[in-house]
Amino acid sequence: MLALMQRFIRAVDAVNYRVGRVIMYGIFVLMGILLWSSISKTFFLPTLWTLEMAQFVMVAYYILGGPYSVQLGSNVRMDLLYGEWSIRKKAWFDLFTVLFLIFYLCVLLYGAVSSTAYSLGYWGTEPFSFFSGLVTGAEEIGHMERSPTAWRPYLWPIKSIMILGMFLMLLQCLSELFKDVLRLKGESI
């Protein structure tokens, strides 16, 4: 069981490390979009797509970069008491609190799946069965949701990125949970 936990930790950490390293360059994409927005407003006709595309890029940057941030331990913590604790006490506290985070991420993941199914034209109450039906051919994509802005992009791509980001964050939190269990057992990680 411990070897399985260590393999899971290595696999999830490797995936989130690579995704995080690629996504961290998304800030340059965001800067390019905002620079083009400024240039087009100053010298040409203003473009309709820049503000909303900048928002989409920022969402992807934030959502997909979150697991990498957790992996590096660069997320925000209240260090008033935590910083003085022993490694074992920190592991117990992290083990306890990550369970709340996992529950919260499961709720967010369900909401992201439901919202993505809605954006693909599904108005039912079982979004997971809709996606399994899409794979098997039992379901069809309906009227796709679009943004109410003048540009009117489809919303399913950014909502799909939300699903991916929540799923990667959930996997990273499970990895952190397993790391805490291994620390409490005295195993090296």
TrEMBL record:
Q: What are the GO MF terms of this UniProt record?
A: transmembrane transporter activity
- Gene Ontology CC: plasma membrane
Query: Main subcellular localization, coarse class?
Result: membrane
Q: Where is the Tripartite ATP-independent periplasmic transporters DctQ component domain?
A: 30-181
- Give the quaternary structure: The complex comprises the extracytoplasmic solute receptor protein and the two transmembrane proteins.
Q: Where are the transmembrane segments?
A: 21-39, 51-70, 91-113, 154-174
Task: Report the membrane topology from the UniProt record.
Answer: Multi-pass membrane protein
Question: What's its job?
Answer: Part of the tripartite ATP-independent periplasmic (TRAP) transport system.
Organism whose genome encodes this protein: Octadecabacter arcticus 238
Family to which the UniProt record says this protein belongs: Belongs to the TRAP transporter small permease family.
Q: Where in the cell is it found?
A: Cell inner membrane
The protein's name: TRAP transporter small permease protein
Keywords recorded for this protein, A-Z: Cell inner membrane, Cell membrane, Membrane, Transmembrane, Transmembrane helix, Transport
